[in-house]
Structures are given as C-alpha cells and as structure tokens.
Write a structure and sequence with these properties.
Elements (H helix, E strand, L loop, with lengths): L6 H31 L12 H26 L2 H34 L15 H40 L4 H36 L5 H6 L1 H17 L3 H27 L5 H27 L5 H16 L25
Keywords: Membrane, Transmembrane, Transmembrane helix
InterPro entries: UPF0658_Golgi
Length: about 350
C-alpha cells in the first residue's frame, strides 16, 4: 500500500483518518444502543433493518474513502482527489438524512411501544440518548469536508506539475489521459453506491424473499470483479474485455432503471434512501459507460507510457531540495499558458 510522502498528503490522510475514527466510534455506539433497545421480535418488520443498514453504510464509507485517497495520491489523480471532496459532501448529506430517518424510526417505535408483539424496551426512549451522537456525526463530517477540500486544492497544485511533465506539456495527450482518470473515478465510486443500494434494497424491500434475495446479493461480488476487470482492461488497452465491461454496465443500467420503477410504486421503509442511492448509481453508470467508450477511442495512444512517466516524475518531485517548490516548474521553463491549464 502506498505511503504518503509530501506534507499535504500526510495532512489529507490525517484528516480523513481522524474523521473515520471519530465517526465510526459514534456509529458503533448508536448501533450498540439500538441493539440493546429492540427485542428479537423486531425482525418481523422491514424497518428493523433500516437503522443497522444506515449505520453500516456510514461506517463503511470512511474506510472506502481512505482507500480511495491512498489510490489518488499513489496515482497522482487530481480527478479522484476532487471526487473525494464530493464523496465527503455526499457523506454529510447522507448523515443528515440518517439523522431524520433515525429520529422518525425511534420516535414511531416508542409511540407504539405497547403494541403486540413488543418490539422495543418500553422503559426508555432511545432517541434522546443517541441524538447527541447523531449531531456529532454530521458536524464532524461537515468540518472534515471543509478541511478535505482545502488540502485537495493544495495537492492539485503539486500534481498538476507532475502530470504536466509526464505529457511533456502537450495538451492532446493530457486531454486523453484526463478521460482515463475520469473513468477510474467513476468506476470506483459506482461500486460503493451500488453496494449501498443493493444492501438497502435487498434487506428492506426484498427482505429475504428467495430466490431474488440471493441473486441480488450476488451482484456485489460480480460488480467488484467487473470493476477490477474494467480497470485492468483499460490500463492495458484490451479492447475486447473493455467491450465486455461496457455490456455488463449497460445491463446494470437496465436493472437499476427497473428497480427505480418498482420502488416508485412501492410502500416501504427507507424509500428516500434507496431512491438516493439508485439515482446516483444511474448517473455514475451512464457516465462510466460514456467514459469507457472514449477510452476505447483513445486506446494505443500512450496510457501505459504516461503512467510510467508520471510515477518517475513523482519520485523526482519528492527528491527536490527543501528550498524548491513542488508546484512550480524549474526556472528554465516559463509558466504554461492558459491553453495548457491542467485539470
């Protein structure tokens, strides 16, 4: 696994790591309190899955985000860095949605606590106990988003010069390589949102009904394999495999559209959450297919050479004496004109 080298890389990883530790601890606390509050009869209703699912998604999100940032600084991918900013902002939006969902669910269960069968511990109201933790999750994520955007901007300035040297100042190779970077970002983000949607849809709406439950859950490992195959095929410019990946994602797009149509007419808990993830998946899948097609058109035009050159220039950049700037070209070079502006 790649280890951060520059000061800004360390700061960015530190912010994301600290945010992950704090939010994960708070989410685990909420989950433990929820499990202590409900009774075994809660599994009889689909709403029993909503809170654990939402908490699980928010626990997995910072872990996946930290993996993405390591990949971004390893590959000097400015597009992935900016997408991490958007990803963190989406986490904040989701934490606010989770706050509303948890409040509605716990309040509704407590108001109906004397129903049969008994679903919760009737001696205490859970919401006042976990509300401060829910508030802290949203606040920490918001502050983390601000700091992440700041350090991503600083890293963008470093990486722009590295990439500029890799393409030797030429705008056409840089434009072609930009679509490759966008493809990597889209396919990696799609896997997270698709996994989140499948887990919610399967546990809440399908709710263990066979064979749909098993077949739907199998989509997660299949999507992971297709993601790895797509990255490998585009990096090595294997057109046949890239076409196969495109066909798979077109099938996924059809599946997502049908699920949205079904959910539109359904009456189920967590409908807004599922719509949010499904809609993001549709947008990401469509954009992934489009960027993959563009990558096919740009095949045999130096992706592998640029990757190797970029890694070499990155090592050079980090061996520059302390007095020199990482974000500026040597004095023998003039500042690039606006037409060569990067990212």
């Amino acid at each position: 696994m790649y280890r951060p080298t520059s000061r800004n890389e360390w700061w960015l990883c530190t912010v994301l790591f600290t945010q992950a530790i704090l939010t994960t601890a708070l989410e685990i606390y909420i989950l433990v309190e929820w499990q202590r509050w409900v009774t075994p009869f809660i599994t009889q209703v689909p709403v029993s899955c909503m809170i654990p699912i939402n908490l699980g998604i928010l626990i997995f999100a910072p872990v996946y985000e930290f993996i993405l940032v390591l990949d971004a600084i390893h590959n000097k991918n400015n597009v992935l860095l900016f997408s991490i900013c958007i990803f963190n902002i989406c986490r904040f939006v989701y934490s606010v949605m989770q706050y509303i969902s948890v409040e509605d669910t716990t309040t509704g269960l407590f108001d109906n606590r004397y129903g049969t069968p008994t679903l919760i511990d009737t001696t205490r109201n859970l919401w006042p106990q976990i509300q401060p933790a829910e508030n802290l999750v949203a606040v920490i994520t918001a502050l983390g988003s601000i700091l992440v955007c700041l350090f991503v901007y600083l890293l963008h300035r470093e990486y722009s010069w590295v990439i500029y040297k890799s393409v030797q100042g030429s705008s056409k190779p840089r434009r072609r390589y930009l679509f490759y970077e966008i493809f990597l970002v889209l396919i990696e983000l799609l896997f997270y949102f698709l996994s989140g949607f499948i887990i919610q849809y399967n546990l809440v709406y399908v709710h263990f009904k066979e064979p749909e439950y098993t077949l739907t859950m199998l989509l997660i490992p299949v999507a992971f394999v297709i993601m790895l195959l797509g990255i490998w095929a585009v990096q090595h410019e294997r057109t046949i495999f890239v076409v196969a990946v495109i066909i798979c994602y077109l099938g996924l797009l059809s599946y997502l559209v049908t699920r949205i149509i079904i959910l539109r007419e359904a009456v189920t808990a967590g409908k807004d959450m599922m719509f949010f993830f499904a809609s993001v998946c549709v947008v990401l899948t469509s954009a992934t297919v489009l960027s993959t097609v563009i990558c096919i058109q740009n095949s045999d035009r130096g992706f592998k050479v640029i990757n190797q050159s970029k890694n070499g220039h990155a090592l050079e950049s980090y061996s520059i004496p302390p007095g020199n700037s990482l974000t500026e070209p040597p004095r023998s070079f003039s500042r690039p004109s606006s037409r060569l502006t990067l990212d």
